[in-house]
Description:
The protein is an alpha/beta fold. The chain contains eight helices and 28 strands. The N and C termini lie far apart (about 70 Å). Pfam families: GMPPB_C (PF25087), NTP_transferase (PF00483).
Amino acid sequence: MTDTRSLAACTDAVILVGGKGTRLRPLTNTIPKPMLPVAGYPFLQHLLARIREAGMTHVVLGTSFKAEFFEEFFGDGHDLGLEIEYVVEDQPLGTGGGIRNVLDHLRHERAMVFNGDVLGGTDLEAVLRTHVDNDAEVTLHLLQVADPRAFGCVPTDADGRVTDFLEKTEDPPTDQINAGCYVFQRSVIAEIPADKVVSVEREVFPALLERDARVYGHVDQAYWRDLGTPADFVRGSSDLVRGIAPSPLIAGRHGEALVDPSAGVAGGVLLLGGTVVGRGAEIGAGARVDTSVILEGVVIEPGATVERCVIAAGARIGARAQLTDAVVGEGAVIGARCELIGGARVWPGVQIPDGGLRFSPDI
């Protein structure tokens, strides 16, 4: 039997990163979602590190929105121990079309495909082993969840072979959902129509079952989170810092906070819940920052409270301001004693004066 590391070395990694990240605006107004800093690194870098750790070295990024960001940052991948190629979709092609669009850049007969929005912890080598052991044409990573009603369900038989793809239902027959990570044989990718919008979930997979293709599931209960919303983005970053979600990039550095060495944190500051403090940020005395992402150059003045928030680069939070479940765009200014709660989003460059927004009658 071929060892799993050898299998990984002969497997292409394909990452689909073409989405616009609209649910994370205004953070994604200028930066593609996979490049947003999570636990001190662009989110995509955590995934690339896991791919490298599993033994895959050739990566193809399927890009569309702000495609130039990826190549400018990662280059050819040499610094990460990878070989990275970039394929740009002129028009978004959907998941199936995006996979088909990279076909000419694949080097091997097998490709592991990742959704660039998902923070995952599954054992990639084990998924690959499941695929090869079953002589599968396609293998899906299937996640067991407590409440599968909000997801499409993927039942399997006693041998792990996929029997159906079901839309969301109030009475799901299985707790297994599609986790957005697949292993494809190259021959299957070649069957997808070129230059067309195609969905793997609604078109490719059902068609494979119809022709009785060998489609299998690798089932586990690994860490999994789609970072598509501000709440999930903050929680994913927190889980990385606290070691709940795995990443080779911060192994051995887990705790209540991850603070860049260049940041200034005054006395009496409380940093809790897996908070990240970015390069050159300054946090004033007596401030409390809990389960938040504080990006480069942010200033949080004394006595402010920031909880479950993302504060973008160069923003300023005034003294004794209180922010909960908020997103503050680049360079915005939140005046002293302001209150932002419950999903508030401040666009880049906006300035709210001292006491200019609050929910309590007096603070």
